[in-house]
Structures are given as C-alpha cells and as structure tokens.
Amino acid sequence: MAGFTGRGEAGGAKAGRPRLLVTGFGPFPGVEANPSAWLVERLADEADGPGLDADLRTAVLATDWQEGPRALDLLWQAHHPDVVVHFGVAAEARGFRLERMARNARLARPDVRGALPQSAELDEAGPSSWRGSLPLRRIHAALASAGIPADFSDDAGDYLCNAIFYRSGRYAAEAGRLVMAGFIHLPFCDSAPASPVRDGVADDGVAGPTCLADEMMLAGARLVLASAIAAWRERAGSSFEGD
C-alpha cells in the first residue's frame, strides 16, 4: 500500500498554490531499504515548513506491478495534482538523473512479491511513449548551481519506475489543464545491494553507482520541487489574475 500524507482538495488550485504530489518506492528484490522512500518521508516531514508554497501530498508506492499503479490511480483521483514528481533509484545514476521519456514497454521482471507483469506493454491502447513535462532544464540549472550532480536521460528503464512515469504522463496529458509531471532517478547510497541494480533490478553487468550524501539528496530534492512549483506558477499565473 502507498503511504499518504499531506492535504488535498478536489477543486482547482487556489491563488497560484499548486497541488503537489511526490512519490518514492518501497523495497524490491535485492534492496530492503529504498533511498527514494527515505527521501519522500523526509520531504513529508517538511510539508508545513518555509519555502514550499504548495499543497503537498506524498506517497511511498509499493514496487508491485498491480499495487503500485493502483495506488497512483487513487492519488490522482483524490488529490488532482498540478505538479507531480516521482523519485526512484537506478544503478546508472551518478546524481539526479532527469528522465525525459517514458516508454510503453516493460520486461518480465519480478516485483516485490515475485510476481511478473501480465504483458510486455503497459497500455495496449496507449501511445508508444509519453514525454515528461517537468521543467528539466530549469531543474538541472538549479542543481548545477548548488554543486549537485545531475544529467538528462531518455531511458527510464523497463521496470516500475518507467511504468509509474508512463501512467502519470497519461494522466497529465489527459487532465485538460496545466499539469507538470515527470520522473527523477537517484543513485543508491547506504542501501546499495551487493549486486548493482539497473532501474530497480539487480544486474551484475552494470557498474556501481555514485553515492549522494543524505543531506545533498534532500537539498537537491528541495531544489527540484521549488523549481517545478515556480515554473508551474509562472505558466499558470495568468489564470489567477482577476480572481
């Protein structure tokens, strides 16, 4: 099950204050403690702190082919987010890996229950890919200015990270309003498994990751959220003039 925190309203965002959804993942085969879960839980603790001008909801999604997407559906239906940032982990990440594209594909890899996906496609009627809508160049510039490593990627993998990214891409595209949504991969740190993990799956052929200290990871995530919120408010600002 996903862990829900924060506040949400079914109506539209008020006075330029967006509804923000941030998710991470729980454990999966080979990894007992997922850094993205720790990160999201820390961000949830700061929900009412200074500097985050958004209505925040967070969730730690099960790395489960059925339960993960189902929990995401409930979050979209309950919170009607304006900005969505998904975090996950990948062995290739050398910092914040900003994903630009989600693909309508997955491999038969076991989830946390050992279950396999039912098909090679995420959505038989869906497009071959979705392009994320987060302001990645702005996010990259903010991270680089703070000395936090970051790069771009066009391959979100073929596991639950890509599946969740694709699903949120569909919701964002079909929202009928301004919604920014995307996915960011993080490297492993203290929870790195004995065998390196590629997009949530152990893979002995992949070089090990570069570790980010907890505080740097948290600082980077704050910059990601602040950059996304600022970009959304700039684009949506005219909608609130005269309200």
Automatic annotation (TrEMBL):
Gene3D superfamilies assigned to the protein according to its UniProt record, in alphabetical order: Peptidase C15, pyroglutamyl peptidase I-like (3.40.630.20)
Alphabetized UniProt keyword annotations: Cytoplasm, Hydrolase, Protease, Thiol protease
Single GO MF annotation: pyroglutamyl-peptidase activity
Coiled-coil boundaries: none
Entry similarity comment: Belongs to the peptidase C15 family.
Protein name, per record: Pyrrolidone-carboxylate peptidase
Species: Rhodopseudomonas julia
